[in-house]
């Protein structure tokens, strides 16, 4: 992509409006220090000592974090519980500039939370310990699903696009449900000018008439669910597998498809055909937590701002390469960082 074209797309971000629908989690980081540990007389075990607690939006919230960092107007469509975690998540969403008109607070659900203890060891290494997940273990009440449908229909008219993040493993236990997926398909059919993009970890095959963003494993799994003939696709040749998947999804939805390939970059398909961008070569440690969500934000916002599918994939590829280098947090990418990474990526390509 030429620098001037990238700058044109980025310049549109400030006047673009994007709504994010789906599973809003609280990422609760608890910083521990080994040097302060005490011995518990009751349990005869090490008692970890916390020195800092930091709550930030996770899952769909990673998408809104990146939209905020890239300078666009954005809203959330989802739910939180009326609990302390919900209070912290709502406060963090508002602090990032997200509009919370369509955020439901309910006593019938608790706020999904990933608790992430970080231990600063005696050698100063900061290690992430076992994550503790707090997730609703039952299906949503129907009234909550219907309210989310109502908010989806209200929000789509005032936004350039809807980005969907479905992370919960059991159908209907998170924000998304069959009734909401059906409503999303109707919206996509009725308003073809709107960008409707879905990133669903477990239910990509259940959507109709929308744009999909997946990693290769998710794409292959969803394809096998659609048709048994695709079971056991060989993943040795990532590009060949990605091309097969994008071709099939394009023929089903006739909407742009995007498949991330880890260090091999990103691939996709639209009316013009298959495209691929190699990964940015990174030296040093990386943290891939939240990388897929940041890529979704990069692709989805670019599409809403007038980019072609191939241009949006290029930008999403840059965003992902930036966020994976931010350790111990779900990363974000600014417009300035995207332009700088673009220049570095072009140098790599030339080399």
Explain what you see.
- There is one protein chain.
- With 351 residues, the protein is an alpha/beta fold.
- It has a single domain, classed as UDP-N-acetylmuramoyl-L-alanine:D-glutamate ligase, CATH 3.40.1190.20.
- The chain has a nine-stranded mixed β-sheet with strand order 7-6-1-11-12-13-14-15-16, sandwiched between helices. Strands 2, 5, 8, 9 and 10 form a five-stranded mixed β-sheet that branches. It has a two-stranded antiparallel ribbon with strand order 3-4.
- β11, α5 and β12 form a beta-alpha-beta unit.
- α1 runs antiparallel to α10, α4 packs parallel to α5 and α8 packs antiparallel against α9.
Give the gist of this structure.
This protein has a single domain, classed as Ribokinase (UDP-N-acetylmuramoyl-L-alanine:D-glutamate ligase, 3-Layer(aba) Sandwich). Helix content is 37%, strand content 26%. It contains 10 helices and 16 strands.
Please indicate the count of domains: 1
CATH class: Alpha Beta
* CATH topology group: UDP-N-acetylmuramoyl-L-alanine:D-glutamate ligase
Please outline the major beta sheet.
9 strands, mixed
CATH superfamily: Ribokinase
The N- to C-terminal Cα distance equals 16 Å
Structural class: alpha/beta
CATH architecture: 3-Layer(aba) Sandwich
Q: Which range best describes the helical content: under 10%, 10-25%, 25-40%, 40-55%, 55-70% or over 70%? A: 25-40%
- Helix segment tally: 10
Identify low-pLDDT runs. Answer: none
Strand arrangement within the widest β-sheet reads 7-6-1-11-12-13-14-15-16
Average pLDDT score = 94
